[in-house]
Amino acid sequence: MVSPIARLTASIMLPLLISACVSAPAPQRPVPKPAPRPTPAIVVPVPKPAAPKPLPAQNSAQAPAQLEAELHEIWRAFPGKTGIAVQRIDGQWVTGKRLGEWFPQQSVSKMWVAMTILDQVDSGRLRLDQTVRIGMNDLAVFHQPIRERVVANGAIEESISSLLEQAITASDNTANDSLLRTAGGPAAVRNFIERKQLGKIRFGPGERLLQSQIAGMSWQQEYSLGRRFYTARADLPYERRKASLDAYLADPIDGAAPDAIAGALSRLARGELLSPASTRLLLAMMERTKSGPNRLKSGVPAGWRFGHKTGTGQQLESVSTGYNDIGIMTAPDGTRYAVVVMISSTTAPVPDRMAMMQAVSRTVAAHHR
Questions:
Q1: For residue 327, what are the β-bridge partners?
Q2: What integer pLDDT is reported at residue 60 of this predicted model?
Q3: What topology does CATH give the domain 65-366?
Q4: Please, which residues bridge with residue 141 across strands?
Q5: pTM
Q6: Sequence ranges of the domains in the chain
Q7: What phi-psi label fits residue 166: left (phi over 0), alpha (psi between -120 and 50 degrees) or beta?
Q8: How far apart are CA 290 and CA 59, in angstroms?
Q9: Phi and psi of 97, rounded to 5°?
Q10: Residue 253, CA distances (Å) to 105, 183, 186, 243, 351 in order
Q11: N or C: which end of the chain has fewer CB within 10 A?
Q12: Both ends of the chain: CA-CA distance in Å?
């Protein structure tokens, strides 16, 4: 039996023996100091140059030189007094010939009547579904398809919307004069032109008084029926007719400058003259125009859109007056051009007048970039 003293002695000696069997720790080596790191260079960030803004497809202040040259040749080769204006609606350049001179508008002036009416619709003074009564005493002269229904019925009622459609798309003179009366007469249209600052654009007294004055006649309501106006005009002495026509061409009471019309079309297209709804309505009507299919429209390429308004004046012997077409050409990429061709007087036959206009619209499209 192991005594308590022996157990105590063993418990003390056992840890000492175990510690003697373990290797003594190796002496610590001095830790070498790390080599000093080089001081990093101070890098100053260089700002990236701003990305250059894309250049416009064309200089917004200058028309293409080749376009100007070709328009000049078209204008130079055509006999008579001709005005041409082309304005890039989305770029603001304008070019042409006789830009600021007076030219007779004839039915081009129906545009200002339509705008005056739509301006009053926008202000709540008129409604598109509002009806207008048209009787025998309201009939006009020359082209007026609505006349047959008035004569057949004694009187008819037409909505303002319907009259606008007939005045713009079919150039109906009675429809236009009925709108003019509804708007408040020539003074209302002149007020619209002045208030909207449309520039060098006049408005005449309405179709009946305008056409009789050009012919050297005083208006009589019976002239609105059949060919009575033509018969009465033919009975006038040639000298009287010529003097009246010459006076009109020298200072047209319904005159306008080509650049003023191009500017007005541009502002219409940009929505600066009428409400969005009225702007869409009028532009759509212009694209439905049936008159003058062989004028500017015939030179507009496939894939382009075109809305326009024609105007045609009286003729005395070989001299034709007021042969016009104005419109908005829209390229497939959406770029728009206001195009105006106005012939004050010419001896060129109708096919030549049409060919000249077609050459203008074709040239505009050819130089679109």
A1: 308, 339
A2: 57
A3: Beta-lactamase (3.40.710)
A4: none
A5: 0.83
A6: 65-366
A7: alpha
A8: 35
A9: -135, 140
A10: 9, 20, 12, 15, 28
A11: N
A12: 120
